[in-house]
Structures are given as structure tokens and as C-alpha cells.
Amino acid sequence: MTLINHSICYIIGASTIDEIKINKEKQDFVIAVDAGYSHLEKMGIQADLVVGDFDSLMRIPDHPHVLQFPVEKDDTDTMIAVREGLNRGYRQFVFFGCLGNRLDHTYANFQILCFLAENGASGYLLGEGFAVSAIQNRAIVFPDRMKGILSIFCAGSAAEGVNLTGLKYELHQYHLSNTIPIGVSNEFIGKKSVVSVDNGFLLLMWTEEIDSLIFRLKNPD
């Protein structure tokens, strides 16, 4: 399996979508998940692969590359799409239509972000004005041009050695639990900012324009 550096696997779900911005480059890959296919149809965007049990779409897509699965299964349709992307060598995933509507599926998608982090990949859920991602035992850096809100949550029983620098509220070697939301509503202040964790998972939610995030993924410092 060849790892595809800096290319993006876009995953399109069935939840409400404000906008989809896919500036697809040669090695990028677009997966429609069940009724997410209808979003792409309406916007004239071509999927490379369509997966799902199609209980939401209520039809089998007229597409040359369809993977159909039973309704009763262990993985969600979105998780199946992620596994397909990983198997194709992708390590950066951008999700549209995977926030909102059903709270249980939104929470399941937060868990998928942790699964990606655990497997050396990164995922970004986009929607409702926010980007959501997860990290494990590492740091994530934000440039000084960032504006707005950044919230950090423990995505496990505890996160050890949490550091926040370059933000309005800083933490240093902090023990962050999953029962106290001390990390909510931090703010970017025009400085390069770093969020890191020595041991554990962090779930991050921040405000950022879609174009800005995609540019940063394609052009890492």
C-alpha cells in the first residue's frame, strides 16, 4: 500500500450540508456515503466511490463503483468509507455532511476521528461553522492568522500532559478529564498556537473557513 501524502480523501455523508468545497486534485478521492450521493448529484460533483446500505437513499446509485452492504452490520456506513480510504493509502480525511441531524451518528463520527488518530491518520468534520478533529499523543499547530473559538475536550477517561500555548487561556502539563469541560470556548489571539497531549486523545473544535483548512492540509508548514 502506497501512502498518499498531502492528498485528501473526501467523505460525503447524508446530514444537512451548508456547502461542499472540493477542489479535487489528481490524487484526491471522493467517497459518497449512502444518501450523501444525492448531495453530490445536486452539486454536480462526481464521486469516485459510493458505499452504504442505501437505507437512506432508498435506491442503488447509478454509478460504476458501488459497494453495497447489509443494513445490519457492525460498522457504520461512514466507518466503512474510512476503511476504504485507508486501504487506498489516504491519511487525510475531510468529511462533509457528517455533523448534525442525528446526534448518535455525530457522536459516532467523533469516535471515527479518534480511530483515525489512533491509526496515524487525521480526520476533519466540517459543518455548522466548525471544524472538528482529534489527536493522540501529539501536537497540532495553528497559524497566527486563525480567528475565533477553539474548544478542547478529553476524548477518553483522561488526557495527560495537555499543553495549550498561544491561546487566550493556556494550560501546561495539565491532567484533563472527561468530566470537567475546562477546555470549552478558548480563543485564538493572533499568535501561532499549539495544542499537545503527552498521553491520551483530545477532541478539538474550532472556527475556520473551509478554503483555509483545505489549503493548510495541502500546504503543511
Automatic annotation (TrEMBL):
SUPFAM superfamilies: Thiamin pyrophosphokinase, catalytic domain, Thiamin pyrophosphokinase, substrate-binding domain. GO terms for molecular function: ATP binding; kinase activity; thiamine binding; thiamine diphosphokinase activity. Its EC number is 2.7.6.2. GO terms for biological process: thiamine diphosphate biosynthetic process; thiamine metabolic process. InterPro entries: Thi_PPkinase (IPR006282), Thiamin_PyroPKinase_B1-bd (IPR007373), TPK (IPR053149), TPK_B1-bd_sf (IPR036371), TPK_catalytic (IPR007371), TPK_catalytic_sf (IPR036759). It comes from the Bacteria. Residues 137-203 form the Thiamin pyrophosphokinase thiamin-binding domain. CDD domains: TPK (cd07995). This is Thiamine diphosphokinase. It comes from Flexilinea flocculi.
